[in-house]
Amino acid sequence: MHFLARLFYKTRRFFKSIRLFLIISGPGIIVAVADNDASGITTYAVTGAKYGYNLIWFLIFLIPVVYYVQEMTMRLGVVTKRGHAEAVFNGFGPFWGWFALLDLIFLNWLTLVTEFIGMTASLHIFGIPPYLTVILVCVILGIMVLYGRYWTWEKIALVFCLLNFIYIPAVFIMKPSVADIIHNGLIPNFPGGFNQLLLFFLMANVGTTIAPWMLYFQQSAVVDKGVKEKDIPWGKIDTLVGAFFVVIIAVFVVIFTGTVLRGVEIQNVAEAAKALMKYNKYLGAALAVGLFNAGFLGAICITVTNSWAFGEVFGWAHSLNNKIKEAPWFYVNYFITLITAGLVVLIPNAPLVTITLFVQVVAVTLLPASLIFLILLLNDDKTMGEYKNTKTQNIITVMIILAIILMATLYAFSILFPNILR
Amino acid sequence: MIRKLKIFYRRRLKRFFARTFGRITAINKKYAKPQIEMKSSVKISLTALLFYLLFIIGLLVYKFIITII
Q1: Which ranges in A280-380 belong to alpha helices (H)?
Q2: What mean pLDDT is predicted for residues A317-344?
Q3: Looking at chain B, which residue has its C-alpha nearest residue A364?
Q4: Whole-model pTM?
């Protein structure tokens, strides 16, 4: 009887914990899954087509990278109750504050343009013209923020996060060789030797995994959600689950293209989806739908990140819990960012490829700064109190941050000066 | 009529810029004193970051110029 009673209470406590986790979770999962945006999926797809399964082992190393950076962001937001933009202003003064804010706005807008590029290209495969895609996306994103509060927005975003897993059933349909995946993918190797092209791909994969907007998004999201200090352990689990999800999706995209498009030169996923449709229309459709969803998820997060950042600094009401009359500038900023980015894609002969490459380069001006601000703030006693970084956390995060800065810088170099690394 | 509209919108624009400029000045005043403790590690990190950014922006400008030429 005593055993049954204990079992009953343990089971009840377990389900209560699951329920609590489902309530607290959201920002960490959304930011990580949204990180596999249109350019992220493109990078993984091209990597799979070029190197097959051989770089899967490298992607797995990105789990701790995503976790440690995003966990610090979450902790900073929960403790300071400030978004990242405001935290930078408050911690480092107006010079660094304006640099971070204006760079973020510009970079986010460019990234949003690349999301629209991905979305219009993917739906164009199904015969939907770009202008219709832009209108559809703007309407859906508008409805998401105008109706309902933060919780509604978050739950809808989580549904789109689930759609990002479309590559998993698609891979099972293909029935790739598991032995090949384990042998070629999980044992560290450098296919074709460690050369400039391989380094470029490694840097691209690292560069696409940590984007500056992720820091600003997660920090503002935990503030808007009202996460408290006692919920930090749940926030850590949320972030860890997100880190796993981002890499799982990346691995399955690599397996997907590594199986059906190995050795095929592809420049973008839309091209790959079109080619794949001739071989298997369901797989091609899965790739195209996955690309659209990735771009859409990225757009969901990036638009709201800009509005949060502006609102925090300018002192406007800046919560998704505020209605349009209570926070007019928050929504004005949101719609201006969204609509202008969508319109760029509709300009005839717009230099979309240049914009896509340019985003990677501009990211190098903000990413190192954001990471350095993050670690300095997390080590400040006045800011963090008992929640500041431990010595172990500092060692790990400094190594990760230096590696990211190095890779991101080399990547930008290789884009600006293609022959410099030869 | 057109002249009246022009004057109206010029005044509105002036007020908008004055308000925005005022807001920016207020933000700068509010955050004038950095709250973070300026230890030597913080100063070194921020200085290194400044030089890094100047270097990257310099490269971007250089690339822009040689592309134009």
Answers
A1: 281-314, 328-346, 352-378
A2: 90
A3: B56
A4: 0.88
